[in-house]
């Protein structure tokens, strides 16, 4: 099925639901495991980051495997790169991004409530500095290359393991701990905990993520100039 063909309304609605739920569970994992790590390992930032990264990487593998038959981007940058590759219509991309943003906010609220915190507590964790901004470009560029490189492999099902492994590693090799996702970044402003980010830090982070995504789109086109179209990660396959 062509990813640029107009899907039936019920199919688009299922894709929107998959993106909303998948992104919600992803953010709930990031925020919830951050809160748990902070409580279980007080005073040990390195151990907190290890716990947070392992939980996030493992959840990504599970979520992508579970939702990929319908839609499993969970990231506005990935969806916009798909649109740039002609795999998703612009109007569909806009709807999918809206679902991801809504899902991210829902996931943060649920994570807060699970740990008996206020449903919404604006983060005061400032994340500033040129190094962190460079890191977000690098993290997002790498994510785009991993996603679309894995999708072009002979075994598309490996994309879940590639993405989960990459994000778990990127928590450590980037100074920003690899947000690499505008929906997740915005959602993390709603929790004043280990995984939070102050609203004032968000515009620069998102700008660098978009820049990394654009760079990733360019590199994907250079690496695969005549390759067959990749299977869409936001197009229902059934």
UniProtKB/TrEMBL annotation:
The keyword Iron does not apply. The chain crosses the membrane at residues 16-37, 57-81, 93-115, 130-151, 158-174, 194-220. InterPro entries: Aquaporin-like, Aquaporin_transptr, MIP. Keywords: Membrane, Transmembrane, Transmembrane helix, Transport. Belongs to the MIP/aquaporin (TC 1.A.8) family. The keyword RNA-binding does not apply. The lineage of its organism: Bacteria, Bacillati, Actinomycetota, Actinomycetes, Propionibacteriales. Its main location: membrane. This is Aquaporin family protein. It holds the Pfam family MIP. It is a multi-pass membrane protein. It comes from Nocardioides aromaticivorans. It is found in: Membrane.
């Amino acid at each position: 099925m062509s990813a640029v063909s107009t899907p039936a309304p019920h199919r688009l609605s299922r894709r929107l639901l998959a993106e909303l739920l998948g992104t919600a569970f992803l953010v709930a994992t990031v925020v919830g495991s951050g809160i748990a790590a902070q409580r279980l390992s007080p005073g040990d930032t390195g151990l907190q980051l290890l716990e947070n990264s392992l939980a996030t990487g493992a959840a990504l593998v599970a979520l992508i495997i579970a939702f990929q038959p319908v839609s499993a981007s969970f990231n506005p940058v990935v969806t916009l790169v798909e649109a740039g590759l002609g795999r998703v219509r612009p109007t569909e991309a806009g709807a999918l991004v809206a679902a991801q943003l809504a899902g991210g906010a829902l996931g943060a609220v649920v994570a807060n409530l699970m740990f008996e915190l206020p449903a919404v507590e604006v983060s005061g964790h400032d994340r500033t500095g040129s190094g962190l901004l460079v890191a977000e470009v690098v993290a997002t560029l790498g994510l785009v290359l991993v996603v679309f490189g894995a999708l072009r492999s002979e075994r598309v099902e490996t994309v879940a393991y590639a993405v989960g492994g990459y994000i778990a590693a990127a928590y450590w090799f980037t100074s920003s701990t690899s947000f690499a996702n505008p929906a997740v970044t915005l959602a993390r402003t709603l929790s004043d905990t280990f995984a939070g980010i102050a609203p004032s830090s968000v515009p620069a982070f998102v700008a660098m993520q978009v820049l990394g995504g654009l760079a990733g789109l360019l590199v994907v086109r250079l690496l695969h100039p005549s390759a067959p179209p990749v299977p869409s990660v936001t197009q229902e396959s059934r």
